[in-house]
Write a structure and sequence with these properties.
Largest sheet of chain B: 8 strands, mixed
CATH class of chain A: Mainly Beta
Number of helices of chain A: 5
Number of strands of chain B: 21
Helix content of chain A: 25-40%
Distance between the termini of chain B: 59 Å
Number of helices of chain B: 25
Strand order of the largest sheet of chain A: 1-2-3-6-5-4
CATH topology of chain A: Pnp Oxidase, Chain A
Order of helices and strands of chain A: HEEEHEHEHHEE
Radius of gyration of chain B: 30 Å
Strand content of chain A: 35-45%
Number of strands of chain A: 7
Oligomer: heterodimer
Structural class of chain B: alpha+beta
Largest interface: A-B, 25 and 24 residues
Helix content of chain B: 40-55%
Number of domains of chain A: 1
Strand content of chain B: 15-25%
Strand order of the largest sheet of chain B: 14-21-20-16-17-18-19-15
Low-confidence stretches of chain B: 314-326, 602-610
Largest sheet of chain A: 6 strands, antiparallel, barrel
Chain lengths: ~150, ~725
Amino acid sequence: MKDADLFVEITKILRSQKLGVLGTCGTAGPFCSLVGFSFEKDLSHLFFSTPRSTRKYANLAECGKAALLVDNRMNRPEDLHDAQAVTVTGTVRELKDPERERAEKIHIERHPYLAGFSSSPTTAIFSLEVDEYSLVSRFQNVMIMRVKR
Amino acid sequence: MRLVIPLEELSDDRKGSGGGKAWALSRMIREGFPVPGGVVVPVEAYRRYVDLTGAGEMIMMELNRKPFASMRWEEMWDAALRIRNLFLKTPIPPELELELAETFDRRFGVVPVAVRSSAPGEDSEGSSFAGLHESFVNIRGTRDIIENIRLVWASLWSDAALLYRKELGLDPAKSSMAVVIQELVEGERSGVAFSQNFTDPTTSLIESVWGLNQGLVDGTVSPDRWLLDRKSGSVLKHTPAERKKAVRSSRGGTSLENLPRALRDRPPLGPGEVGKVYGLAMKAEKWFGKPQDVEWTLRGNSIFTLQSRPVTTGVKKDERSWNLSLRRSFENLKALRKRIEGDLIPSLIREAENLSKHSLSELEEIKLAEVLEDRSAAVEKWTRVYWDEFIPFAHGARLFGQIYNDRIKPEDPFSFIDILRPEKMAGTERNSRLEKIAKDIRQNRELKEELEKIESGLPSVVGEVFIRKAVKELGSDSALILPGREQEMALARLLLEISGRTAPQKTRPGKPKDLEGKFLSSFQDEERQLAVDLLDLARASYRLRDEDNIYLGRVERLRDEALAEGMARLSAREGAILERYSATEVIKALKDTNYVPSPEIGDKPSESEERSFRVSPRQITGQPAGQGLAKGKARVIRGKNDLFSFRSGEILVCDAIDPNMTFVVPLASGIVERRGGMLVHGAIIAREYGLACVTGVPDATELIETGDELTVDGYLGIVVIHRKD
C-alpha cells in the first residue's frame, strides 16, 4: 500500500465511525471506554470528551498516553477478513481555551447531539496528539503510519 | 425451504436457486424431452452447509489473504487445495443430512446416479463453466451421494473455476452451487451437439465418442466430428477420430478402458443417428429460443438429453481452455514426463556442455561476441521451455495431492509433500559439497587466516589456490560465479561464513514410509497399480521442480560468465571500470570497436513527496509454506553481492528463489518470498532444511530492508517487521 493510499484508507475508516474504544492505564489498572471522537483533517490530532469524575479521566490525567481503537466490523463472521481496524496511539492533553473552544467546535460538528454534554463545566475535552496509526486489514496485515514531528 | 426438489417441479422463478443446468433439464422434462429423472439440491442447501459449519468464512479468509486479482495461479492452486480439503473434512451437519438422506433413500435407493454441478450463472451466453466444475458418475447409495455432493460443492472453488471467475471479474463471495442428482443412463454412445457452430454460424456441429461423455468432456477421448448444414441438417464433413479408448462405468465411478478392436473402425453414430442428434439439438434451440449446446447419450435406439445450455458467444475460448489445461489428465502428464525426462532435460544438459567448451579468456572479441550471443539465445529458449513444459508438469504433484487428500483426509492438506520428497535433491547435494569445503576450513586455522586475507582484498597464494580448487569441486552446478574480479573475495567471505557456524544445517531425514503405505493400502486390486504409477509420476514432478531450476541455472551462469568476460574486455579497452551493460549492448560493442554501448537503466524510485507521515509495514501476510518460527535480521536479495554478504542466521528475503540463491539457504534461519505457492522452489528447499518459510508476500523486497529485525511465522504465514524509527 502506498503512503497516500494508507492516509486515505485511515481517513475513510475514521469518517465511517462515530465511536471508538479508548484504552487508558493508571494505578487503578487498565480500562476501556467507548467514546465519541472527532479529528483534524490532517490526522495529526483526535478529540474526545469525558466527565472529570470518570475512571478514564483519572487514568488520562495520570498517564498522559492513550490508545483509541476504531474499526468497521459489522458483527458478522465476514468481519474476520473484511473488517479493518485502526489503533491510534499518542499523547493526551486536556484542552484549555482557546484550544478547547476550537476543538469543541470540531467535535460538536461531528456529534451535534453531544453539544450539551461537551459544553458542561464538568466535561473535559482532550486532544490525542497522534504518534502512530496502525491499520489492520485482511485479518493479519498491519501497516504503520507515524506522524513526523 | 425444501432442500431436495424433483427436477420436474423446479419452477421458472427458482432458476437462481436450482442453477442453469437444473432449470434447463426441468423445462425439457416438462416439454416431453427424453431426460433421465432426478432431483436438484438447491443453493440454499449449500448456503446452510457453509453457514452452519463456518466453512463459508474459512473460504473467504483463504481467498482474502491478498487481493483476489493479485493472486498468482500457483497461489490459487494452493488455495483451492486447502478449500477442497476443508470440504472433505467438514461433514454435512446432521439436521441437514437427515433431510437429504430421507429423500435420496426414497427416490434412488441403490440405483446408480450422476451427481452434477448446477451453479447459478454457470452457463450463460457470456460465460461457460463447462468442465470447470465437477460431476461424478455411477454413484450408488445415499451415503455416497451425500459424500459426492460435498465434492461438487468443493469444485466451486477449484483452481480452474477460481481462475475463470478472476478473468470474468466475478466476486467469489457471491458464488454458490446447486447439485443435480439424476438416474444414470449408461449410454453405449454419447456426445455433444451444437445447434449452431460457434466458429461458423451457418453450420451445426456434432461430436461423439463410444461410452460415456466424461472422456469427451475432460479431453481424454477424442471424438468423431460431424459438420452439418444448419438449415438442412445434411452432413458437410465427417472427421473420424483415432478411436482407442472409452469411458465406462466401473465400481464406484468410471474408468478409461481400451476400446474393443471391433469398435475402433466404426464411428459411434450411423448416418440416421447423426440426423437424430441434429434433430434433438434443433428442437432444443427452438424451445429455448437460442442456439443450444446439448449433451446427449444413446442407449439402444433411445436418445437421452443429459443437459442443454446456450452456445457461448462472448467467451474467450483460449482463456477457458488454458484454465482447463491446468487439469492435465494423468495420461497427458505421463506423456509430458516422457518428453521432459527423455528429451528436454538431456538436451538442456547437452546444450550446457556444448556451450561451456570455449575458454573465454582465449577468445578473440568477435568470437566472444558470438559465444555470448549463443548463450543468451540458449537462456531465452530454455526459459520459454521452462514456462511451457516444466511448469505445467508441476501439476503432477498437485494431482497426486488432490487424490491423496481425497483418500486420507489429512489435517494438513500439504502433508502429501512429505511422500514426494526424494532421498537426494540436486540443490541440497551441491550444498553438501559446500559444507564439506567449509569443514576443511573449520579444521585448519592457517587456511582460515589465508582466506581472511583474500576476503579483505590482500594477496594470498594459498588462499587463491584453495578458492580455485573449491570452485572446481563445487562443479558446474555451483552457480557461485560472480561477474568481474570480485569472485575470490566473495567466495572467501561465503566459505568463511559457512565454516564459522557452530551447528551446520542438516537436511531433513528421508520420507516417512508409513504415509506411503497408508496411501497405497487405501486402493485395492487393479487400482493399486494406478496409485503406484501416480505416486511415481508425482515424485518425478516434484523432483523436477528442483532439477529444472538447477539445469536452467547452469545455462544462465554460462551466459553470465560470457557477459562478465565481455564487460572485462570493454573495460580494458576503455581503461576504466564500466557501468553494467546488457548482453545485447556488449555484443554490439565487441563486434564493432566504434560502437558506444549505453548502460542498463534501472527503475529509479520516484522522489517521494515530503509528507508529514512516515509509512512502514509492521506485519505482512503471505502463505505458510514451511512450518517453523524464525527470528533474525533480514537480508534482502537484490543482486548477487547480497548473496555473498549473507550472514549466518539471517532471514533470506527475495522476490523469487532461483538456483543461484539456494547455496545460502543453509545459512538462513528463515525465508520470505514474494512469489507465492507451496510448490515454488523456495518452499521446496525450505522444507528440505526444515526452515520457516512464508511465500506470496506482496512487495516483500520493497517493504523489508536489509537489517530489519524480522519474525517469520511459517505456521500462520505471517512476517512481522520490528523496525524502530
